[in-house]
Structure formats: C-alpha cells, structure tokens
Specification:
By secondary structure, the protein is an alpha+beta fold. 39% of the residues lie in helices and 21% in strands. Helix 2 crosses helix 4.
C-alpha cells in the first residue's frame, strides 16, 4: 500500500505540497498561504507527518531541512522536505 493511500485528506494535501517542492521544501506558513488552511491545522498535519509511525516504529515522512525562511510576518520558519531527501549532485562530465 502506498504512503498516499495511508494519509488522510489534509495530511495528503500537506505531504503533496512538500513533495512537489523538492529540495526547496515548504514552511508551514507557505502551506497555510497556498491552501487557506489555519495555522493550527497545518501545524498539526506537519507534526503528524514528522512523527509518522509504520508498524509501531518511527518512519517520518517529512523532516526539517535545517534552514529557515521568513514568514509573512517576517519571522524565521523551518523548511520541511521529504524525509531522507538529499540535494542533487552536479553531474560528472565525461561519463
């Protein structure tokens, strides 16, 4: 069963926005602005995805990237990406 099939509607909406953002990721504020969802709703869904468990064991679906971006209010906010996502490496020439 795919991850998408296991998520609720709002979880899937948040997960897809983060997934489609790739390495740029999304802040909760950016998700709020794009979806019109409340801060409480987005924050709760992000928390569920960060603390996802599979068969009773931690299996996070998203994680903080370790950088921040400004919110609409000018505060720093953590950026979320898919768990385990790494930046693309430059291709080596002469393959």
């Amino acid at each position: 069963m795919s991850i998408e099939a296991k998520l609720g509607d709002l979880q899937l909406k948040v997960y897809d926005l983060i997934r489609l953002a790739g390495w740029d990721g999304k802040t909760t504020d950016e998700i709020e602005a794009e979806t019109g969802l409340t801060h409480q709703s987005v924050s709760a869904r992000v928390n569920e995805l960060v603390n996802w468990k599979e068969n009773g064991k931690p299996a996070p679906l998203i994680e903080r990237r370790g950088i921040t971006r400004k919110t609409r209010a000018g505060r720093g906010a953590g950026v979320y990406v898919l768990a385990g996502l790494m930046p693309a490496n430059d291709r080596v020439r002469g393959e």
